[in-house]
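User: I'll paste a sequence; please echo it back and then give the predicted structure.

Assistant: Echoing your sequence first, then the prediction.
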Amino acid sequence: MIDSRYQWEFPEVSNQKAVKTISEAFGVTELIAKILVNRGYDTIEAANAFLRPDLSGLYDPFLLHDMDKAITRLMQAIDNGQKIIVYGDYDVDGMTSTAIMTWALELMGANVDYFVPSRFSDGYGPNLANYQRFAAEGMQLLVTVDNGVSGKDEVAWLMSQGIDVIITDHHELPEELPIATAIVHPRHPEGEYPFGGLSGAGVAFKVASALLEEPADEVLDLAALGTVADVMSLTDENRIIVKQGLENLKLDPRPGLAALLAAAGTQLSDIDSSTIGFTIAPRLNALGRLEDATTGVQLLLMDDIGDAKPLADHINSLNQERQQLVTTITAAAQEQAAQLRDDPVLVVAGENWHEGVLGIVASKLVEQTGKPTIVLNINGDEMKGSGRSVPFFDLFTALDGHRDLMTAFGGHASAAGMTVPTNNLTALRAALHDAAAQQELANAQKPNLQIAAKVSAADFTKENFDNLQVLAPFGEGNPEPLFMLDLLGVNQVKTMSDGKHLRFIAQTDTDQLPVIAFGWGNQASALAGHFSSLQIIGTMSQNSYRGNISYQLMLRDMLAEGAAILDWRTSHLTRQTFNKPVTYVFFKENHLQQLATYIDSAAQPLMWQDAMNESDIQTMVLVDLPDSLDQLQMLLKASTPGRLAPMFYVQSPVYLQPVPSKQVFSNVYKFVYSFKNINLQTQFDAMINHLKISNMTLKLILKVFLEAKFVTIDNGVLNAVPNPTPMKLTQTKTFQRFMAQRDLEQQLIYSTTAELETLLMNLSKQES
């Protein structure tokens, strides 16, 4: 079976009247209206604000806490030519925030410069050493963007030196805020801003708008970039920012982004929110991970595409280097994770693992294993790294009680960064094991996934795809609608990107549908088999190739009931047969003993009785033939492997042996009766040649005759019994066993794949 990664929800709309009203008012299908109502847009006003976002829906920037103080101080600095430093951050939200604030201040004629800290030498957020250096160089006003609220002590030092500080931030607020000239934050406890979900770039955009006394629409593309890259909720004001920002990016991209998109091979007509998430943001983030994020701000502020092109090409190549680092480190981390498969929280560590990409590696392991994961780089007696978590496990809480094991630590429930003495690796693993027990991680429910509708392949059409686009842009808080399909099966299963991803053709009751499955490469062999039922969940996607447009499903989750049955039946066993890290199950003890030395050390050889007690077999290979279907059924009902691969090897199949006729039995008896004292050791082959039957057929007949007492064999000498007691030879146990074996082989070895799959699925069905 393939277990789903999520708990699937199929919400029913209780307010059918609202669905009908919205459908009629906005000319959308009932499916679109149902999705809107399910997401809370159940009135004409709410649906209108969602479906028709424009700049008139933006809130007055002066509703933000301390915005009036911030603008007053900024205008004072501009009028007096005071030196302003914009202090940013090394991620995309930080780069775009820095670019927006710098652009707005330059436009107003300010004496402004910007600084983007290094991930490696400066760290995140306020840095006293940097502040002191800027002060010594004549800074008179510091403006933080996408950081600052955690800098109580650092800001206090600046203020004590007569240097004013304006903090613009959106991160979680500490218990004690800095005492600054102004703190512009959408969730400030003393503020009343209508929407608390702005990104750092969103807050910078609001400051720019307040400075200009009108929406700063020239930087909406940057605000959209920061909003999507920082995974902010694409609702309310963020929806307006991203919708309008994407339109600006599509119609008239700034030179730096145009050059970056060209380097990535992206057409302007293809731009949507996923372009930010999967094309622009990873490339800009590569700067902060591997080099200097200041280059990213430079690119965003460039006026000439000719100047921007070399920089964009460099960033693109740097992203390729980042991808290779992630691939290499992830492979090594996966090997460790496999060895730690019993740990509820994974902590993997290696030497020369680039610290700038460890968060990405941790995310990939979380995605692949479903477990919270920490990835650390070992540098002598110190380890540094990042952790990512899963819903229902608070990583910050798990680590917070063990600060004695770390020299530095910070983060939140789903992500954390830390520095750990190398000697504390074992202790850290033990502490997280205990934390998993305390938080009952083993009993945690899967995260929910809301399904819009159940559909078939025939529903993937241009009309339906175009209808769905009225809900775009998609992202956090406004996910692409998900659809469920029941499949009859899949074919043409192929891996991509060195086995990381999959593509296959799904067969529904109406038609076939191409499916792309990112991150599902490890299920390639399972999908090659057959399940009792198979369902997939995904989004509707448009694919354009050489002018031809088609539609496909981008897989999000799948559920397959029953073991995936892989037809590995063979008539030959070689060393290569046993070189896979799977569980080889034997029905004959002598076969296990004979083949034990050929089996890979990473594999698990078991007798069938022992396999019945194993609960976590991933791939069970049935090497030889069971004695009966009852024996096979006992095994399959007791064990539930993810994949079942029957080989059913038999050295001498009896199915290929013809069933002796009454005439053949008679011919053999007459021969034995006519020739006395036949020496089987020396005359057996002569009997075969004379009777014109096979070796196996003659052996079978002689065994039947022995059981029926038609012949005797003493010391290898064969003689007929004169006038034996008449009996029906086909009723002997020997003949019955032969026929039963023949029938068993017919069902398990000489059946079609479809027939075998049906039989094995029926045998494995659990009692209800």
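The mean pLDDT is 93. The chain is about 40% helix and 20% strand.
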